[in-house]
Amino acid sequence: MSVFTSVTHEDLIGFLTEYDVGTLVEHHGIADGIENSNFFVTTTQGEFVLTLFERVDPEDLPFFMQLTSRLANSGVACMHPVADTSGGFTRKLNGRDAALVVRLAGNWLSEHRPRHCEAVGAELARMHLAGLDFPIRRLNGFSNDWMRNVIEQVRPLASDDDNALLELQMQEIEEAHLGDLPHGIIHADIFQDNVLFENDELSGFIDFYYACYDVLIYDLAITINDWCRTETGHINADFLEPLMRGYESVRPLSAEEQSAMPTMLRRAAFRFWLSRLRDKLFPREGEMVLIKNPDIFKNLLLQHRARPAAEQITTKA
Question: Residue 25: pLDDT above 90?
Fold first, then answer.
């Protein structure tokens, strides 16, 4: 379970006095995720999720809260923050900034099918379109500078082979020219455990705390790398094609975006390999912290790099 900061029943009773959500019935920690402390909360008026932000810059919280409120009010299936009695979306709890959001119905899928990928692709495209006019900009915290800094951090403990791959892929990322590709608000973490389904229907995206302004198809590449990846690190066309069909039924890709997809798939795999490698080599102190396997995305990156140009993934169904 990934809980860094504990919350007692008494703590939560005091916190909820500033919300019009009824009386606390029970709460318990959520096992998934590694960035924040999360709890399911049941009150006499409904079901909610409480998040205590462990590594999020407090200055970024208005962006996340206003974005998800705006998207939810625009009809995007996503988490919806609850305002307190003063109209704010965050309050302090046990020394942390904390937010309460409506708990979406359903659960993430332990085993997904092509039809689920199609639904995810379509909702991702709707989210991209709904966020185009969002007035607040937040730059990607996992920028090229961040990547370069983490490479220097892990270099002394990484293997020679890993260091060589890190440098080779970083050079490609730094030389890529992506400024002309369509930009907008991206989720940046549409992994399977951040998408909920109920009765086989997508009920919503959660965990927007990596959201930022970046290349739209980078979000698509991150999603493909998780939803369409096999255990051996290959991309399964049976999942890729419906995901892309769903996305392009709402927002068709340009020829330039099609051409840039292989680069984006490598960038996306690299970003998650690098962050997981850092967390493995430099584990954070905390209560029941979950460390995710970095080799999953290292192997995927190697598969993307090994694929000849003539066999690069097509994004057309």
Answer: yes
